[in-house]
């Protein structure tokens, strides 16, 4: 029974991602090595900066995952956060400027 919580959380994340419009969710995310290289090349803000920005926009939420993904306009951080009411929120942060592009 104690493994049911993480499984339900994972299923909830999958549902939250697929519930968004295809334009809202970039599917071409970078592996960790490429993400580190993009930050090292100074092309994008550090992941911690993107997470801090997302936390300011969605206070009292726990960040579950942060991914750096490609979309039509460049690189964006897709940050998934769990609010205290159980809702999953997706915050998209522009990789180059570090500003919030959208909250769903």
Defining traits:
five-stranded antiparallel sheet, 35% helix, single chain, alpha+beta, disordered N terminus, 3 helices, elongated
Can you walk me through this structure?
The longest helix has 16 residues. A five-stranded antiparallel beta sheet has the order 1-2-3-4-5, sandwiched between helices. With 104 residues, it is an alpha+beta fold. The protein has one domain.
Number of strands: 5
Characterize the largest beta sheet: strand count, sense, and whether it forms a barrel.
5 strands, antiparallel
What would the average pLDDT be, to the nearest integer?
Answer: 82
Q: Rg from C-alpha positions? A: 14 Å
Count of all domains? 1
Report strand order across the widest sheet: 1-2-3-4-5
Helix run count: 3
Q: Which spans have pLDDT < 50 for at least 5 consecutive residues?
A: 1-25
Shape: elongated
Helix/strand structural class: alpha+beta
Distance between the termini: 31 Å
Binned strand content: 25-35%
Specify the helix fraction band: 25-40%
- What is the N-to-C succession of helices and strands? HEHHEEEE
